[in-house]
Amino acid sequence: xxxxxxxPLVGGNNHSDQSGNALPMHRPTxxxxxxxxxxxxxxxxxVSSVYWLFTxxxxxILLLFVPLGFASEFLHWPAVWRFSLNFLAIxxxxxxxxxxxxxxxxxxxxxxxxLLNATFGNAVELIVGIVALLQGQLRIVQxxxxxxxxxxxxxxxxxxxxxxxLFKSESTFQQTAAQAxxxxxxxxxxxxxxxxxxxxxxxxxxxxxxxxxALEKINKHADETEHGLLFISRxxxxxxxxxxxxxxxxxxxxxxxxxxxxxxxxxxEVPMMTPVAxxxxxxxxxxxxxxxxxxxxxxIDETAQxxxxxxxxxxxxxxxxxxxxxxxxxSVWMAAKNKMEIAIGVSVGSSIQIAVGVxxxxxxxxxxxxxxxxxxxxxxxxxVLVASVVLVNTLIQDxxxxxxxxxxxxxxxxVAALSFWVEPDV
Length: 426
Description:
Elements: H1 46-55, H2 65-74, H3 79-120, H4 123-134, H5 138-167, E1 171-172, H6 175-220, H7 222-254, H8 275-298, H9 300-307, H10 311-323, H11 325-336, H12 340-369, H13 379-396, E2 400-401, H14 403-422
Antiparallel strand pairs: 1-2
Helix pairs in contact: 1-8, 2-3, 2-8, 3-8, 4-5, 4-8, 4-12, 5-10, 5-11, 5-12, 5-13, 5-14, 6-7, 6-12, 6-13, 7-12, 10-14, 11-12, 13-14
Pfam family, one: Na_Ca_ex
InterPro entries: CaH_exchang (IPR004713), CAX-like (IPR004798), NaCa_Exmemb (IPR004837), NCX_ion-bd_dom_sf (IPR044880)
Subcellular location: Endomembrane system; Vacuole membrane
């Protein structure tokens, strides 16, 4: 039987739009009495809220890995166990973050709810990035963020196009909103490419004017180049943060109508958590995730060396897939229900948050704590990112999608994953 508009998600739980939009979601019209015996329908109490959060999906079974991840760190288990257990622990934690964010958004209204989604939608990626930054693993920071963007716009969006194409020959979505999101995404991509162009042009100029001796001189005086990269990156980050704030105003206030789902899809939402319980859940889960992420990042070097797994593959492919687990499920499910606006909002919107919000914020945080994080990514990563954003923009410009376009996006992601497996660690 084909799913109807009221069909609940797995375990009776729907997901929120991670792009920062307060979008319609579908819930049962009342609470099962066994879940909330003391609260009337639509009026959950704190206990029932916590109960629902932890029992709303079968994915939460994986929460068993959270204490195991802690134990692996304190008992000094081998690095591969510390990495694997904390890796698996982050999957359900990402799910809980998405659910708690959605519930908190219901009572705060579209604007505040959207800002809350913008803050917590990529919480796992942000936490992993902050932990790696404070540990001085700047390449892990860059790789995980680039990988998150690629995972969202290639794997998540590609699977969504495929899922939508399985039920309809062609899916449609709001063309103007998609073009606006694509343009913002391109801005973030170009800003990442500019420092790489600066680095490359400095070396090329040296070769043309003084041959290899001049290039050797530049290498010996790398501090000058590093200073230039830091100046460009920090200045550009300030600009991007301002653009992201303007984008939130555009999306949530002045042009919110562009991002709204069709009226026929809207249904009255019944909260499953109290606002206090939802916010408390957000804070608690974020705190726990920060510890698991800390243990995970700390085990990357030893695991990569012991088992021959490239750090580039871990940072760019494995970590983002875990962090984007919630977005992936939500986007594919919405696309299968012919709600492509929500699917694109989740995948492309989440990438915008990373490119225009999280990356520059981490550069500025690195500036504050004395870590020289820049927007200069390796040339190979920059080329892959630019090619991916160009392909996505090409496919969403017409406001239509099909399974073939989805297959193209997933194929490019597979090629990128193969390439990152053999990319040398630097």
